[in-house]
Automatic annotation (TrEMBL):
Keyword match S-adenosyl-L-methionine: no
Compartments where found: Endoplasmic reticulum membrane
Role: GDP-Man:Man(3)GlcNAc(2)-PP-Dol alpha-1,2-mannosyltransferase that operates in the biosynthetic pathway of dolichol-linked oligosaccharides, the glycan precursors employed in protein asparagine (N)-glycosylation. The assembly of dolichol-linked oligosaccharides begins on the cytosolic side of the endoplasmic reticulum membrane and finishes in its lumen. The sequential addition of sugars to dolichol pyrophosphate produces dolichol-linked oligosaccharides containing fourteen sugars, including two GlcNAcs, nine mannoses and three glucoses.
Annotated membrane topology: Single-pass membrane protein
Name the UniProt record assigns to this protein: GDP-Man:Man(3)GlcNAc(2)-PP-Dol alpha-1,2-mannosyltransferase
Organism: Lophium mytilinum
Transmembrane segments: 6-36
Positions of the Glycosyl transferase family domain: 344-508
Domain annotation ALG11 mannosyltransferase N-terminal: ranges: 97-302
Pfam families (alphabetical): ALG11_N (PF15924), Glycos_transf_1 (PF00534)
GO biological process, one term: protein N-linked glycosylation
One Gene Ontology cellular component: endoplasmic reticulum membrane
Gene3D superfamilies hit by this protein: Glycogen Phosphorylase B
Keyword Glycosyltransferase tagged: yes
Length: 551
């Protein structure tokens, strides 16, 4: 009893010191945040004055005024042009705050950037007087060039006066090349430097990360507790699947990397980083993910701590929301006919659209195709035409070029080089042409977080054969009206069998599956993305107003 009593008394000062240290740390963060906010006050006033000036100039030269947009049909979407909330209630169309979007590579032109610009367009429709600021490291392009590329690349037309760009000078700290060792931790710490750079330029009213820098959001909460934060997560920085892949029988690019003493160290390093990732994720107010697979992993990592921190919000199904990324579905459905008549344009072609990166697993697809042609020279629907594999993808650097060369060698070794066509750096018209001519679309990546290319297959009417994992399995190639829209596979044998099944369907079965696939793709349109996005932004605006009143 005496020892227990002594231990109790000794532990009291330790506990008090711990909580006092946390209090001091929090106070220090708020002091630094106060000075950052004060230092950026003049820039904020200049920005708002510039917005007003550009609004007047724009209104004078455009008959529709502030809400002019290249997509006039968007004016009919309930809740955006009219300023009403997604549930029909009167919205706060007079909210005039600043939304900061943390997207250091905003001019990259990929799927992540499409999410960014579609999100800003939805915000502009919903809150026409709010200002959207993008923190970017793309110093080589100005605002006009960025918005022109957005319009040409994605057919998204933004309202120029209320979107502005602040240029970061420390983007190099989030490049993988800067951190050849301990890359995950290095890039995450680098994002703290980059976020501090952003806040030294301007402290927004709402801070949104659309690239996956959770540590940047944690820093925002540490410095500015009154500023609501939101994350749109394309894929978790670390996941339980990544840890499992280190085993000798694992899958993916890190398969077998957990063997030996280096593997032992790597496994523990990743486990410790996962704990840190859980901690920073718990600080974020509103979390969205791009797929059910991503949601499942983020929920397993972040939800327990978030439930303890946000006591008013239970770790429920709606706390971490799935918001599917917008895909150019309408463009494909309008431009590509799917009917019995269009079948005459299609051949026994298997199409794989993917960058030539290791994780895309082109080798698996070539091996499966080799097994297919070894057993089948032709199919009943295409009696005079042998099957063909077309690999379409971009070549970013010399490593990609070497990878393409090795894939060509593999095709030569399997004696199928005449039946495989490589299309590198294809233009959009070329891709559209192949989507009209192919019958089957394939995806070979293990645990792909979503799969925009698979949605494009479906919109074009292709029968998809996808990896039995990740977003393609859980969200995209699913049954519609109780009937399949494609096939799932994991091994070489399963892929070869799925190719044969897809090409052996009767004309009636083929037509029906193509139409179901197209119907499935309609779940991923720009309009549906905007509705879900605005629903989550409403929560942030309400949170910002409530915290502003308290402060």
């Amino acid at each position: 009893m005496n020892l227990s009593f002594l231990f109790l008394w000794l532990s009291i000062p330790v506990v008090l010191a711990y909580f006092f240290g946390l209090y001091l740390l929090g106070s220090l963060g708020q002091v630094v945040g106060y000075y950052l906010r004060r230092a950026s006050r003049v820039r904020k006033e200049l920005l708002l004055a510039r917005v007003k000036s550009e609004q007047r100039a724009y209104a004078a030269t455009h008959s529709k005024g502030a809400l002019t947009n290249g997509d006039d049909d968007w004016e009919e979407v309930e809740g955006y042009a009219a300023g009403t909330a997604a549930n029909g209630a009167k919205g706060r169309e007079d909210w005039k705050g600043i939304m900061g979007f943390f997207h250091p590579f905003c001019n990259a032109g990929g799927g992540g950037e499409r999410v960014l610009w579609a999100a800003i367009r939805a915000n502009q429709k919903r809150w026409p007087d709010a200002v959207c600021v993008v923190y970017t490291g793309d110093h080589d392009v100005d605002k006009a060039a960025i918005l022109k590329r957005v319009a040409n690349r994605f057919n998204i037309h933004l309202h120029p006066p209320t979107v502005h760009f602040l240029y970061l000078s420390t983007r190099r700290y989030v490049l993988s090349s800067t951190w050849p060792h301990f890359t995950l931790l290095g890039q995450s710490l680098g994002s703290l430097i980059l976020a501090y750079d952003a806040f030294s330029l301007l402290v927004p009213d709402i801070f949104i990360d659309t690239m996956g820098y959770a540590f940047a959001l944690a820093l925002s909460t540490f410095l500015f507790p009154a500023v609501p934060t939101s994350a749109y997560v394309h894929y978790p920085t670390i996941s339980t699947d990544m840890l499992a892949s280190l085993s000798s029988d694992g899958q993916g690019v890190n398969a077998g990397a957990g063997v030996g003493w280096k593997g032992f160290a790597k496994r523990h390093y990743w486990s410790l980083f996962a704990r840190l990732y859980c901690l920073v994720g718990s600080t974020i107010d509103v979390v969205m993910t791009n797929s059910t697979w991503t949601q499942s992993h983020i929920r397993s990592l972040w939800a327990p701590r978030r439930a303890r921190r946000l006591r008013s919000i239970k770790a429920s199904e709606t706390d971490i929301d799935v918001v599917f990324p917008p895909v150019a579905v309408e463009e494909l459905t309008d431009g590509i006919d799917v009917s019995p008549e269009s079948e005459s344009k299609r051949g026994p072609t298997i199409l794989y659209i993917a960058q030539f990166r290791p994780e895309k697993n082109h080798t698996l697809i070539i091996e499966a195709f080799a097994k297919l042609v070894a057993k089948h020279n032709a199919f009943p629907s295409f009696p005079n035409t042998p099957p063909k594999l077309v690999l379409v993808g971009s070549v970013r650097d010399s490593d990609d070029a070497t990878r393409v060369y090795n894939l060509r060698l593999l095709a030569h070794e399997r004696k199928i080089k005449e039946k495989i066509e490589f299309v590198c750096d294809a233009s959009w018209p070329q891709i559209l042409d192949w989507l009209q001519r192919a019958s089957v679309g394939v995806n070979g990546m293990w645990n792909e977080h979503f799969g925009i290319g698979v949605v494009e297959y479906q919109a074009a009417g292709l029968i998809s054969v996808v990896n039995d994992s990740g977003g393609p399995k859980l969200d995209i190639v699913v049954d519609i009206d109780g009937e399949p829209t494609g096939f799932h596979a994991s091994t070489v044998e399963e892929y070869a069998s799925a190719f044969a099944q897809a090409l052996s369907l009767s004309p009636a079965e083929t037509s029906a599956m193509r139409l179901r696939a197209r119907k499935s793709a309609l779940r991923f349109t720009d309009r549906i993305f905007a509705e879900k996005w605005i629903g989550n932004m409403e929560r942030l605006v309400q949170l910002q107003e409530r915290r502003a009143r308290k402060s």
